[in-house]
Amino acid sequence: xxxYIRQAGLIDVALLSNLSTLTFYETYAAYNTPENMQQxxxxxxxxxxxxxxxxxxxxxxxxxxxxxxxxxxxxxxTSEKLVELKNxxxxxxxxxxxxxxxxxxxxxxxxxxxxxxxxxxxxxxxxWLFVCKNYYLKRNTFLSFRF
Length: 147
What we know:
Blueprint: E1 4-7, H1 13-28, H2 34-44, H3 47-55, E2 60-66, E3 69-77, E4 90-98, H4 107-121, E5 126-128, H5 136-144
Parallel strand pairs: 4-5
Antiparallel strand pairs: 1-2, 2-3, 3-4
Helix pairs in contact: 1-3
């Protein structure tokens, strides 16, 4: 069970980089070459890139902790504009990453609930996410929220 969830700031860049890299490898290494994995991680999960994302207006990161250890995080963003949602105020769950050792402890569920609270407080009408077609494991979980 999660002890707490808190919003991430610039002080958390290294932590987010580590969480991102570990969870990305745990989840996607089986579907990619080592070279592709390394390139992606170096491009998207380096400290400078994550600091830029944290500072970007419309982005919110929340980190879940268990026994003072970071177990996962969610990134929300409003910069992605979908034609299908053009008339609705919407927010995207861009990333929801949970370390393998903490999966099946409903951390993802609690991060989604946190995201829904943020969306409601900020007046969003729709919260959405994209699920990779190869990631069937969590597809039913997301469908249960009507994503």
